Predict the structure.
Amino acid sequence: MSLMRRIQNLVRRDAVESEINAEILAHLELRIEDNVTRGMTLAEARRDAMLRFGNTTLIKEGTHRSDAALTIESVWADARYAVRKLRNSPTYSITAVLTIGLAIGANTAVFTLVHATLLRQLPFDEPARVFDLDNFYRDGLAPDMSSKNYESAFNAQAASFKTIEAASMYSSGGVNFSYESNGSQRLQASETSARFFDVLGVKSWLGRAFQASDDVPGNDAVAVISDRLWHSTFHGETSALGKTITLNGQTFKVIGVMPKTMDFPSNTDVWTPTIFDENTFLREGGAYMTWVIVRMRDGVTPEQMRAEFTARAQNRNGNQKMAEDQIPVLSPIAGKLTKSIRSSLLLLSGAVTLVLLIACANIAGLTLVRTAQRRAEFALRAALGAARGRLVRQQLIESVTLALAGAAIGILFAKLALQLLYVFKPAALENFPRPAIDTGVLIFTGLIAALTGLAFGMIPAWQASHEDPATALKAGVWRVSKSGARLRKILVAGEIATAFVLLIGAGLMMRTIVNLNRVPLGYETRNVLSFSISLHGAPYAVEKTTPALAQFYTNALGRLGQLPGVKSAAAVSTLPLDTRADMEFPVQPDGTKTGQQTAAPRIISSGYFRTIGTPLIEGRDFNERDTKTSNAVVIVTRDLAEKLWPNQNPLGHTIHCAFFCEQNPTVIGVVGESRRFGPRSEALAQFYVPYTQRDWTYMTFVLSSEERASILAPLVRSVVAAIDPSQPIYDMKTMKERLDDNQSLVRFEMFALGFFAMLAGCLAFVGLYGVIAYTVTQRTHEIGLRIALGAQRRRILLAVLREGEVMAVSGAAIGLIASLVLTKLITATLYGVTAHDRGTLALAVLLFLGIAFLASFIPARRAASVDPMVALRAE
Amino acid sequence: MAKNDLQGTMDLLVLKTLAQMRELHGYGIVLHIQRASAELLQVEEGSLYPALHRMEQSGWISSEWAMTETNRKAKFYKLTAQGRKQLLAAEESFEYLVKGIRAIQSYA
């Protein structure tokens, strides 16, 4: 048959069918004609023709089968048949589809997340050659700020290394951004050296990136902006190039736009080549971090590069043995970016894999039962003449249909799971683009589901096609074999063990969070709203002696304090739980050199301690009499006071430190300690000076309120805008939100483990119930016999319950041992509990025994209430 | 094995018939085989049409609708060049089969 005819046959089933009909009809007619010619009557002739021919229907089908190459039409028929059969056994179908959906959904969600973060393709050229350099002071590739032209010094040093082709320094922080009269907003900006983009291997999308001459002071008033900023401020127009933008009161010319994928350092919107420039100081405050990145030369190995850097450092160190923190460390940039999130995501992946295993075990169990039940049906159909190939194909189509339906549900579930994971996300996840379920993922999931369906369908299909119909049709053979039943029980025990491990993990996490919440912080986190502001622009320049800075704060505090619902308002230079860098200064008591301690300086307003909830233990708070012209005063934390003046009253003593305490301020008050970095950290020694005595360009305001603090947010903006609309406020959060962010990692892990433990528990419950229920159904006959012979119903109930408990106990035992080993993985995150915590373990065991009891109870009840008459009659 | 042999034999008969008679419809093939074998061979009509369609799929025969002598429409089959080759091969393997069986039968 020609190729065209074959292709036509694929599609035009009706045409083919009618042609076969016509051919067979013609055959019969011809014979009838001959018979009539030979002398039969029409009726006899027809009967003879039909008899000789045989079963026309079967022959038509057989002929039709020989025709088409690929019976697409019959695949569709098989699919419809599969759906009908699945609809007839809803328990099986729904259980299977939901189980598959759950497994696929959870795994897709986690995989999408891991793919967007750990496996992300960095937008750099050959990212494997980009390294982050730590401890760089030792090898000379350092920002030596003391030399006059240190940008050339840095670049000369970089050029002198043989194993790298480029090096760059960069620093990152917030800036006030404004463009023409568009109002001002707070953005993240990066100050870099000229070769920054060369090291990374990133080309500009529009305009140019930096060139070598750009980081010479005087030449460096240029900026490269991000794609996001280009669209939001310049509407994506090429006329953006050459425009002037203002950062922290200084002007820069836009020379280029970065591509959309460029996001290094995270969330950066502007890059300027000003890191070596004393005059620009986009960096705010005293403390800022600088980092160095290098690009390894082509053909050089990382070991060679590390050797050169270590040798240099050794040289500068005078060939003495170097301490660990003196050795330069070169880490691949990809690892550095994912470091904060890696262990959490690995934990997540591990947990979801366990859930997948449990789901697979359940599906295996379901398949075993289904196979056993269908054996009789297959045998019958084979005996009636169905082709083996057709039976196999039909079984495969059924399982693939099931798998695809499960996959569809799985995708919906994955979307939901991703959104949930993001509600509890660790703060570090903000540095990555948000993952979405795109077409690639959908196609991949569909393929995996189809393959799974084929794999699971193969077993019963293969078995059915090799069955001898005679033996299969014998009574009772539709039960699962002995070994099959035992396999199911082992699977269920395994499921229980796995779910147990997850539950222990979740329980330990929960106890950790409870313990963390109990830690006294030294400040209040309820009903306190905070926001930050950085004052830039001519009136606020610190060199001037105008009191503009102090006036702004006084003004703002006055108005904020009068907002409805505000109990008190105050300001501080660095708030507890602030995620930016902190600085510590050496502090000397009473002008002596001995007894020096380190402490962090804070510039505050009066009323700060009252607002933030830190107790004033001795002395007094600052007030309006502490001005530039009066005596310099300082308040210290109790731990600092005890270190500086052990067993003495600190009031009246003085301290000295660089910059903040050059006038040797007198201690007038002592306040309680605070854990500046959150519940896991120790108290940080701090000293406080009033803003009326020390001008400071950035502050974080705190407002304590009667009710929920977040409702004050819109009022706050308008108050500040009324004073000076050119200064944007940023980072508006309640203290509770800051605390949540501080603990976001452990919260995330608890949520993830808890969620998956719940899923695992449900699946294990279903698995256990399935096994027990099936056993009861199988042995209904036997139970009926026993009852008829006089067995007590109670004994039967207990026997079934015991069967369930045996599985639960063995599962819990295995789970217990496994958890003792596996929970060591999360020891670092735990707080206040050990991995072997007996209370949690005992609770988990009890919980599982309870769940097992519940799962066995319903079938047990059914077993105990079997009516012997009905049971014995049926088979 | 039995199944395959029968199928092969049917193929051989049909191909030979068409080689001798050039063009025939299904019923005609049945009659010819009956007649030419002196009533020794009766074709099972039920398995004829699946076989014809299968052979057409394999490209050994080609078909077209035409009118019979009695002015009925019927599907006529014809041997193709590939079919002729297949006929030679089938005849050869049939010879071997017969020789083999004869050899075993005469083995004492």
In short: The interface with chain B takes residues 1, 6, 19-20, 22-24, 26-27, 29-31, 33, 52-55, 58-59, 62-63, 65-67, 69 of chain A (CB under 8 Å). Chain A is about 50% helix and 15% strand.
